[in-house]
Every structure is written in structure tokens, then in C-alpha cells.
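Justification of resources, computational component.

The compute hours requested in this renewal are based largely on the per-chain cost of generating structure records like the one below. Each record pairs the submitted sequence with a full C-alpha cell output. That output is archived, and it is also reused by downstream analysis tasks.
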Amino acid sequence: MTDRDQQPARRPILTSIAAPLFVADIAASCAFFTEKLGFTVDFVHGHPPFYGQVRRDRALIALRRVCEPVFVGDVRTREHLLSAAITVDTRDEIEQLFLTIRAAGVPFHQPLRRESWGAMTFIVLDPDGNLILFAGPDA
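The structure output for this chain reads:
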């Protein structure tokens, strides 16, 4: 046995996540995320496009085209089923982000509010009805 064989294995560190959103139109979704939420397009794949990814800072969102509704009726809004949760570091940032997104005319499922556990959150609706939570600390 070598010294390398005796060393404990280092635990893998997860560095990011790309939450998959199911969408009807990749191009329309990319336009929403870039024009309204300040993301950039990492890539779009397929002819016609069926998969893509958008990014803002370290937040990644994968976009997957589907041809049928994934959820029945209004269950997403009625049950507040989040498709993605994105965090910021400070209260000032969450307030600034809310104001910027509101000025862009994005529809809200929930406006900025303080949650019972102290976080400041708001939830937007994308063109496909996906609920995207933005959250920041209370102080």
C-alpha cells in the first residue's frame, strides 16, 4: 500500500445547481430570462431547440422544452409549487432585485415580504407559469 492509498478520500464538494424548468418555447423563455430577469444565455441545443441554459452570476437554470402540460390545472399557483429558488447575500440586494424586476414588468406570484422565519422573499411567474423564488436574509 502507498501513502496515497491510506489517505481518506476527500468528500466531493457541490459547486452549483441548474434547476430544470419545463417550458413550451425555449426562445421565448430565453428572452424572458435575459430581458426581464438579467440572465444571459449559456447555450441552446437542438433544431428546433429543446434544451438550453441561462445564467446570472452563479445561478443556473436549465430550460427543457415539453409539448404537454407538466402540471394539471392551477395546481402550481394554488399549492405554491416552486420550480426554482435563487438566493442573494444581503437584504439590500433582495430589495434592489425586487425593484429592478418589478420595473421590468415581470408578473409576481408573491411580492416582496418578510417570512415568518425572517427571510425576505418574492416569487415571480415565468411565461410558462413556473414559480421562481428569490430570497435574501432579513438583515
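Residues 17-67+76-136 form a domain with the 2,3-Dihydroxybiphenyl 1,2-Dioxygenase; domain 1 fold (CATH 3.10.180.10). Strands lie at 18-23, 40-45, 51-56, 59-65, 82-87, 108-114, 120-125, 131-136.
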